[in-house]
Design a protein that fits this description.
3 domains; Rossmann fold; ABC transporter transmembrane region fold; 18 strands; 4-stranded antiparallel beta sheet; about 50% helix; alpha/beta; 5-stranded parallel beta sheet
């Protein structure tokens, strides 16, 4: 953001905990250290104060566990506490804490406040600016500031606020009264997953007076071995636990890849392109031989103009026209038809498989790896591979025609040509084995660059707040250098090939020239026209054979992109998209919204521990059920299993008596509404985010915006319903994104089941209660599963 007016004074180092926690795709420990030197005493105190002890105990690899991209393997509360732990560990002077308590339950929030933020916490001697909707903690603040519409409307100590009888005093009074009322949902049943919290004693012995050491560049390697210099750590390269490396094929490319590529080009259009290339080379050869005949017919000088000039010139022009036609047909079929069809074929198949891939695939695959295939590999298939493939066919046809003419005119050339061709082949095979693997390494080393670029952009605010730009630039340079190593090796191999091809080509030129000179002494020497043609072809042999070897190698090295895309076209898909006909329920299913879990067990992917262990419960139609438990207990996993985003390992899940494992994913998910914990907004306009299908009127859109308490904000934006929403909803706060998702759900009432996963965790208590009232009214006939930290 840019300061338009006024002054801001800041002294000392700043640490920042963002409202939306940002985590590196690294180990949990690396996320907390964030480039700082490891201090065991401080580290353990921070872990305990941020209530992470139990979480680390549950994780197989402890703090060496890979958190995944954007912390995908963690719950919202765990991500918030790791972000807070990173902020505390920074040993800064000023701490900016943007709503760090909204994603955790009340017990953990109290623990964090008492042990970290409050007057008895680790940060007690530091300046702390806490943005929060948690009114109960306001009493322990040195000063309260109330903000409305971007302006400070009230400020003062807690006692002064109570004496002023202002808006803040009213909010505190209202919140206190609401806490004493019954649950807004009049909850019939409460599902308790795990409410055990181990209280931690505040470690007052940990001091924050130590100066922070210079940050060191921590690559994603979890094993550290101490060096002689106590102020630094030497990185021991070892594969991090749980880290999934990108798959790389070995050896030559399978012929099935070539067959798939050729089929994707189309049999008819590919045949036409090949015929045009062959015709082009044949006509080009005939043109050269026609020039030889033309020159031979004019060996005797004459004062008069050649009477056959028009004849020779006409035939030559006709051959040139035919060559142009063949080249035109070749270009149209190769690039406008085959290349486009092939690129579309591979892109669409890979895109379809990615959309249908199970969540476990995204848990273990960085976005940079996927992006690399859709950008670089698809670009090669679309742009480079058609050029090198057609170039190979043209060069092969041209080289064959040259050898045919030279061998026909000077048969002894075959005695030298065949051994030299074997030498060419051996050089090409040796080069190909190297260049093909280098190409694969180049492709794989690009993925971390894409991943880090996106990761850095997402966390640029946090990186700048911690003044860690230099470390991230250095790490990015390291990844780029690693990719450039492969590029340099490729260039060096190219130079190696060029020297050897030129040397062999010179031997071939010498051979042809010697044979032509020897033939001149024969009883029937070649005419001057043919000698000229042979020497012309001899000079082009080096270039032709050199290009043939190069383009043949380029075809195999670039076909690696097809190989990588085909790998993704074979990804395992989720369950069937549509319901099998004999299992299809009635069109108005579910009619009641009854949900039954019978001994359900779930894990996020094979090889991991169970998250849900024998869960049994029944939800009657139109019941409003609260699901509570400690962060990481498995509350959100219940909703994932209901949508079949993760498949159960055992047990049954029934909706209105129908086993959902027999229902197609499209039919199932279209019948359940959800307001997720991480609310998603898409780049575009407000109207499209609310109503993607465009089936609702403006009056309906404004109605749901008013009910979700967003109407005033949307009206203040330029364009109203046509106001721009940035990527990921970055121009909206967390609470506003949640409200927009609520409005979206209120528009789509075709289901009988609503899941609310911390749906109002980022809004203030007053708005929360108003929204709960709206939900109780608008979704009265719905069965509602509510995952919430605030039970009142």
């Amino acid at each position: 953001m840019y300061k338009l007016s006024g002054t801001v004074e800041l002294r000392g180092k700043v640490a920042y905990a963002a409202q939306t926690p940002w985590l590196l795709s690294a180990t949990l420990k690396e996320n907390i250290l964030f480039g700082a030197e490891y201090d065991k005493e401080l580290y353990e105190s921070v872990i305990e104060a941020c209530a992470l002890v139990d979480d680390l105990a549950m994780l197989k690899d402890g703090d060496e566990t890979q958190v995944g991209e954007k912390g995908i393997t963690l719950s919202g509360g765990q991500k918030a506490r790791i972000s807070l732990a990173r902020t505390v560990y920074a040993r800064a002077d000023v701490y900016l804490l943007d709503d760090p308590l909204s994603s955790v339950d009340a017990h953990v929030a109290r623990h964090l406040f008492d042990n970290v933020i409050g007057p008895t916490g680790l940060l007690r001697s530091k300046a702390r600016i806490l943005c929060t909707n948690a009114i109960p903690f306001c009493q322990q603040a040195d000063e309260l500031i109330m903000v409305r519409d971007g302006k400070i409307v009230e400020r003062g100590t807690f006692e002064a606020v109570l004496a002023n009888q202002g808006d803040l005093k009213q909010l505190i009074d209202d919140f206190g009264k609401k806490l004493s009322q019954d649950d807004i949902f009049d909850t019939e049943q409460l599902i308790r997953l795990d409410t055990t919290i181990v209280a931690s004693e505040n470690s007052g012995g940990c001091s924050f007076s130590k100066p922070r050491r210079e940050s060191v560049l921590l690559m994603r390697r979890p094993t550290l071995t101490p060096s002689k210099n106590n102020n630094r750590q030497v990185l021991k390269i070892q594969k991090p636990p749980g880290k999934v490396t990108e798959h790389r094929e070995q050896g030559s490319v399978n012929y099935d890849v070539y067959k798939t590529y050729l089929r994707a080009n189309g049999v008819v259009s590919g045949g036409i392109a090949l015929s045009a290339i062959v015709a082009q080379q044949i006509i080009s050869l005939l043109t050269t031989l026609w020039l030889r005949n033309w020159s031979s017919s004019n060996q005797t000088p004459s004062e008069n103009q050649d009477p056959h000039l028009g004849y020779f010139l006409g035939i030559y022009g006709l051959l040139g026209l035919l060559t142009s036609v063949a080249a035109f047909v070749d270009a149209i079929t190769s690039f406008s038809i085959c290349a486009v069809r092939c690129a579309k074929f591979f892109h669409d198949r890979m895109f379809g498989k990615i959309l249908r891939a199970p969540m476990s695939f995204f848990d273990t695959t960085p976005a940079g790896t996927i992006l690399n295939r859709f950008s670089r590999d698809v670009f090669i298939i679309d742009e480079i591979l058609p050029r090198v493939f057609t170039g190979f066919l043209r060069t092969a046809a041209g080289t064959i025609s040259i050898f045919a003419v030279v061998s026909w005119a000077v048969p002894p050339f075959l005695l030298v040509c065949v051994p030299l061709l074997f030498v060419y082949k051996s050089v090409q095979s040796y080069y190909l084995a190297t260049s093909r693997e280098i190409k694969r390494i180049d492709a794989i080393t690009k993925s971390p660059i894409f991943a880090m670029f996106g990761e850095t952009l997402a966390g640029v605010a946090t990186i700048r707040a911690f003044a860690e730009q230099g470390r991230f630039v250095a790490e990015n340079e390291t990844k780029v250098d690693r990719n450039l190593e492969a590029c340099f090796a490729s260039i060096s191999a190219n130079r190696w090939l060029a020297v050897r091809l030129e040397s062999i080509g010179h031997v071939m030129i010498l051979t042809v020239a010697s044979l032509v000179v020897t033939n001149l002494a024969a009883s029937k020497p070649l005419d001057s026209g043919m000698v000229g043609v042979l020497m012309s072809y001899a000079l082009s042999i080096t270039q032709s054979l050199g290009w043939l070897v190069r383009v043949a190698t380029d075809v195999e090295t670039n076909i690696v992109s097809c190989e990588r895309v085909i790998e993704y076209t074979k990804l395992k898909s989720e369950g069937p998209w549509e319901t099998v006909e004999h299992h299809r329920p009635s069109s108005n299913w579910p009619e009641k919204g009854e949900i039954v879990y019978e001994g359900v067990e779930c894990r996020y992917r094979d090889g991991l521990d169970l998250v849900l262990k024998g869960v049994d419960f029944k939800v009657q139609a139109q019941e409003k059920i609260g699901i509570c438990g400690r962060t990481g207990a498995g509350k959100s996993t219940i909703t994932l299993s209901l949508f079949r985003l993760i498949e159960k390992s055992a047990g049954r899940i029934l909706i209105d008596g129908v086993d959902i494992s027999q229902i197609g994913l499209n039919d199932l998910r279209s019948k359940i509404s959800i307001i997720p914990q991480d609310s998603q907004c898409f780049e575009g306009i407000v109207r499209v985010n609310l109503d993607p299908e465009g089936s609702k009127t403006d009056e309906e859109l404004w109605r749901v915006l008013e009910q979700s308490k967003l109407k005033g904000h949307i009206q203040s934006l330029e364009g109203g319903l046509d106001a721009k929403i940035e990527e990921g909803g970055n121009n909206l706060s967390n609470g506003q994104r949640q409200l927009l998702c609520l409005a979206r759900v209120m528009l789509q009432k075709s289901s009988k089941i609503l899941v609310m996963d911390e749906a109002t965790s980022s809004v203030d208590p007053e708005t929360d209660l108003l929204i709960q009232t709206v939900i109780r009214t608008e979704f009265k006939s719905f069965t509602i599963l509510v995952i919430a930290h605030r039970l009142k």
